[in-house]
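seq as requested:
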Amino acid sequence: KEPALAARFRAAGREFGLLIGADAPLGDNLYARVEGEGDVRLLGRGIRSVLDRPLPDLRDRTVLEFEIPDVDRLEIARDGERLELAREEGAWRIARPVSGLADADRINAVLRKVRYLRVREFTDDAPKDPAAYGLDRPRAELTIRSGRDGAPHVLQIGAAAPEGALYARRGGHEGVFTVGVDALEDLTPAPGDLRERAVTRLAPASIEGLRIRRGGESVALAKSGAQWRIAEPEPAAADAETVGALLGALTGLKVEEFVADRTDSPSRYGLAEGTTEITLTPAAGDAETLLVGSTFDRGRKAYLKRGGGDEILAVPASPLAACATEPIAFLDRQVLDFDPGDVLKISIAAVGRPAVIIEKGEGGLWRVVEPDAAEADPAAVDAVISNLSRLRALELVEREPNDLRRYGLDAPAVRASIGLKRGEAVETRVLLVGKKTKDGAPYAMLGDGALVFTVPSYVEANLRRDPAVPAPPE
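struct tokens:
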């Protein structure tokens, strides 16, 4: 007759009513009746907790409603300073108080925190004095603009509230509510926290072109499939490991210091004419250019400027050391590459001992033919074949050398010839080993004499090993 709770619904043009009465004496039930009907029904008591909800429980606690991908402008005002960020052609930039690239990941993190920020308590829907909440002069104000609707979404943060909260309100609305105290720091970062510290956002795998220019010299590399080649100044195979390491170093560069927002004297930073210019071309999208200036801090840092930008940046200098303009720096370091099973004959002439000739006999067994016939030591032969079949240079030193004496290659310390089966013919590969560098790595070149390089010291050591099976002790 006098229900404890009445709930009414409107659906499809009709109205419905449900009256909740007293608890039933048996079971976890209560009495109920549908309006307009005479029957009294038993319902589970859970229906009361579903319907008997205070107003705050039914209010939307979303602070600002927007779609993150649509945001193209973000403004943050705090403590008298204003930070403005704008998205242009997919890239975020800081427009005020400095000018430069912004960190898209950090901006998106801020936007996510705003988008999922929730009201803690609804404090006052019609405040008579906003100053009582610190909202006459907000401590911080965040404005989000969307290209889709153009309407600003504004959040104002005021004074501290009880229980570790802050008073806040939406721009254009009177109602005051509270948010977590961490909202002030999370949603209003300083300009320096949002500056882009990655020199480039390109991933190594996405890059298909690399050009390095310094003064009048330049080298260009291009990727075809999984292979890198030198495209300029002369076509040649490029070393994938060398190119990959350089791209990894360049794309991994981080700004250590923002030196200047702009400059009228680039020569002060070594960024005038003749500077090193690095151009990275991705498979999709625009190419990016990096201008490298002079080093400082005892050579540990270098000045750098992004192409099209004004900022002067300080970055670690060591990753830039490999940005050479000489093609030799990028030539393929795989100097010998053949199938070990194709080897038929090995000839080794080393200073200080007789020349050695080893031949493969029946059943694939190796025998020493000269200087004295003997059974060959399989371990010694395998070491030579293993070293030479996939010989990779430690360092490429000089192309088309004019003076072989400086490398000890005019009169090599070791000359190794490998006879390879090629159908009915035999192809010969020759490796010459000269004197050693200060680090103990021998200079070497192939028989054509087109390129001087260094090899690991164990290569020469294995070539000098006695290939004969040691005689048994008497």
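The first helix runs from residue 46 to 51.
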